[in-house]
Design brief:
This protein is an alpha+beta fold. Helix content is about 20%, strand content about 40%. A hairpin with a 5-residue loop joins β13 and β14 (about 330-335). It holds the Pfam family Omp85.
């Protein structure tokens, strides 16, 4: 049985994972050092007999016993069930890897070829078997590379004068240089570079197979000759231009031979349609980069295909070229449109420490090409029923509800009163999105209404870089039934009533709780009754959080860098920076003020603050099905002038299935405080996570993780307690740490996740009890989620 492979290069053990990919036979998969798939396989018996009649004859006593307890049919069913269980173990487990010398020789061949391709033409590869007890062995692959061959001289033989002139003008970018290693990858890269260069210089007929290399090697050096023919199939290479461009806006294979009934000529382009033309040529040209009377370029063909697909208006985009008699080209862009209207229905089941149970539904409607410029209008209505903790003493299931609607218009261009082509070119995929939304939430008396309005401009400056500028991101939040607050939260009213009767001999009502706290719970009361003072201030703070009416007129810019090649990429990094400014222009224009001298609009306080968020993620593909993932986030929000605090909807919280998983959402902080509030928020947040993801068995995957972070208050609010505030490096000891493990089931199209978080370091506990005080299953936080946490 093979238990280990090792690659030894020139006497030293290899640490390059890439070379390990050339090994044909690998040991059984280990999960944290244990061959779990092998153990699972061993639970099955591949010799388990399914022939029921044969089993009866060979096991008469067992058959007699089972048939006396069960019927003959049930006994047969039991046998079949056991057989199927054994087959399931064998299918989902991993059979022991028995060493195969033929596969070892294949590996020797793979490694020899690899080093040959790297320029080690005299490399020698062998393998040795190292016996281990209990019929197990290790294989060492030994490689002696000898000296590396390098390039001594480079010559060219380009028969076509057209190609030769293009090559000379761009030769400084060649991958093949004197004294460079004689590596196959350099020649492949050079072949691809030249092919792209010629085809993007107008040589439509060029094919990279026309490029060959010859080499003469001696004494570990090689003389290289680049050879390019002057024709393909006897037809000389030429620079060709595009004469005509036809755009078929309703192309279908079944109707392609039908007569064209609508034709429009616009700026040298011909737009054709079998029916009435439904697209405005002016706007459609924003996504077409192939231009008449310009030389052919592969890059403009790909750009056109990419941007037309990005409109989300066409099912397929096909671009074909035809050579004309005068060596000119005709480009035909065939567009098959999607259905103009589409309807979608979705449902969702949610759970958190705030919403014990939530059932929601959404009905969405889309209208494509609204104004004949490939615009998309989306309209949605959503509603949900919740089992909300906000209805504190109401034990009715699904005791709250929320309804809302959103409408958005997406334009595949910038919508501005001036031309923006010189600022952001059409190749940068400019888009403008207008969004309006509203929602009404009812929590058994304490009702809340929200209005949102967003104007968002997005564009790309490269394959990996994206930008978003929200000229407006406004939110208006209004509480419709504030006076009923303490009728709903009766437990809090009872605590205040107890303080009022015990220390002040007063009876209060649900409508004068806050005035009572403001008039009586002061610094003098704190000196004699610190516990009761804190209870009262927490209740007041919670009241202010939940009943806050606010207008948030924000401007935001977001920069995103993501070097992931595609959704299958497992080794990449991600960075996002966002800066938000709220209330500057609105407070400048407003002349209204409330009794607290706070500027208002429509009698609602205007939030004025600046907020910055920084997020970084890095993923390392350690080995097959093993990934190390890191995430870090830092956010700071600073209120000023018209505001003393950050609106609750724009504040930071921590905890939950995608955050600090050992604490429930809103359940931690700020700082080392333990307020007892259900909604703990701050205006400074830091969190960092490290997660090791690995395969356990087929679609079942596992993870080990460590999360660390907290929120703090960085205002000078007199309400905030000292332990809630951030005081420089000293406050880093308030960072909470949670660790745990997770089980994930990968269904290919969706990943279901269960993470178990354990409180490792709790900053609010007394000194000496912070570490591992509640590190047990009694205090485990179970996090259910869809997809990975980050």
């Amino acid at each position: 049985m093979l238990i280990d492979n090792a690659i030894i290069v020139n006497g030293k053990k290899n640490v390059d994972n890439e070379i390990n990919d050339y090994i044909v036979q690998r040991p059984n998969q280990l999960v944290l050092g244990v061959p779990i798939p092998l153990h699972f396989y061993n639970l099955g018996n591949k010799n388990y007999e399914t022939n029921y009649d044969k089993w009866k004859l060979e096991n008469p006593n067992w058959y007699k016993f089972t048939s006396s307890v069960f019927s003959d049919k049930q006994t047969r069913g039991l046998r079949n069930f056991k057989y199927n269980m054994h087959q399931w173990y064998l299918k989902n487990g991993e059979a022991p890897v028995i060493f195969d010398s033929k596969k070892a020789l294949q590996t020797v061949g793979n490694l020899t070829q690899h080093y040959y391709n790297e320029g080690y033409f005299k490399a020698k590869v062998s393998f040795e078997e190292v016996a281990v007890k209990n019929k197990k062995l290790k294989i060492n692959y030994k490689i002696e590379t000898d000296k590396l061959f390098t390039i001594d001289s480079i010559s060219t033989n380009i028969e076509s004068k057209v190609l030769d002139s293009i090559y000379i003008a761009n030769s400084k970018h060649s991958f093949i240089k004197k004294e460079s290693p004689f590596k196959l990858s350099l020649f492949v890269n050079e072949q691809n570079r030249l092919s792209d260069l010629f085809r993007n210089s107008g040589v439509y007929r060029f094919n990279k197979n026309a490029i060959t290399f010859e080499a003469d090697s001696s004494n570990f050096t090689s003389d290289v000759a680049l050879i390019i023919n002057d024709s393909i199939g006897g037809v000389p290479f030429k620079i060709q231009k595009i004469k005509r461009i036809n755009v078929f806006t309703d192309y279908s294979y079944n109707t392609k031979d039908n007569p064209v009934n609508d034709t429009v000529q616009y700026e040298g382009y011909t737009f054709l349609s079998h029916k009435k033309l439904k697209y405005n040529p002016k706007y459609l040209l924003n996504t077409i980069f192939i231009e008449p009377n310009e030389v052919y370029k592969d890059i403009t063909r790909e750009l056109t295909r990419k941007h037309l697909r990005g409109l989300n208006n066409f099912r397929s985009v096909d671009i074909k070229y035809t050579e004309l008699e005068d060596d000119m080209l005709e480009a035909n862009i065939n567009l098959t449109p999607l259905e103009k209207y589409s309807v979608g229905i979705s449902t969702e089941l949610t759970h958190s420490n705030i919403r014990q149970l939530g059932i929601s539904g959404k009905l969405s409607f889309s209208n494509r090409n609204v104004f004949k410029g490939a615009e998309i209008l989306n309209f949605s209505i959503q509603g949900s029923f919740l089992d909300s903790k906000d209805a504190a003493d109401n034990e009715t299931l699904l005791n709250a509800w929320e309804v809302g609607g959103d409408v958005s218009l997406e334009l595949p261009r910038f919508f501005l009163p001036f031309k923006s082509d010189k600022i952001v070119q059409k190749s940068n995929s400019p888009k403008t999105t207008f969004t309006l939304g509203t929602s009404l939430q009812k929590n058994i008396g304490l009702d809340k209404q929200r209005f949102t309005g967003i104007v968002d401009y997005t564009w790309e400056t490269s394959k990996y870089e994206k930008h978003s500028f929200q000229l407006l991101n406004a939110q208006f939040i209004q509480n419709l039934n504030v006076d009923s607050y303490f009728d709903i939260y009766k437990s809090e009213f009872n605590e205040i009533q107890n303080i009022a009767s015990t220390y002040f001999n007063q009876e209060i009502t649900t409508t004068n709780v806050i005035p009572f706290i403001n008039d009586n719970i002061d610094a003098n009361f704190e000196q004699t009754n610190p516990t009761e003072f804190r209870i009262a201030q927490n209740i007041k703070k919670r009241h202010n959080i939940i009943t806050e009416d606010v207008l948030v007129p924000a401007i935001a810019y977001t920069y995103t860098l993501n070097n992931s090649e595609n959704y299958k990429d497992k080794d990449f990094s991600f960075f996002r920076a966002r800066i938000v400014s709220s209330g500057n222009l609105t407070t400048l224009l407003s002349n209204e003020k409330d009794e607290n001298n706070v500027k208002t609009l429509l009698k609602t306080p205007i939030a004025q603050y600046i907020r910055t968020d920084l997020e970084y993620k890095r993923f390392w593909n350690i080995s097959l099905e093993n990934i190390l993932a890191f995430r870090s986030f830092l956010g700071i929000a600073i209120p000023y002038n018209n505001s003393k605090t950050i609106p609750f909807s724009r504040s930071y919280f921590i905890g939950g299935p995608n955050d600090l998983r050992a604490w429930r959402i809103y359940n931690l902080g700020p700082g080392s405080s333990q307020s007892g509030l259900e909604y703990n928020v701050g205006n400074l947040k830091f969190i960092s996570s490290l997660e090791y993801r690995f395969k356990i068995l087929n679609s079942i995957k596992g993870a080990l993780f460590v999360d660390a972070g907290n929120i703090w208050d960085i205002t000078n609010s007199s309400v905030s307690l000292p332990e809630e505030k951030f005081n420089g490096f000293k406050s880093l000891q308030d960072i909470a740490i949670g660790s745990g493990f997770g089980i994930r089931y990968d269904l290919s199209f969706i990943l279901l996740r269960l993470d178990l978080g354990f409180k490792t370091y709790e900053p609010y506990l007394p000194k000496g009890e912070k570490w591992f005080n509640n590190y047990n299953f009694n205090h485990t936080v179970y996090n259910f989620g869809i997809s990975y946490p980050f």
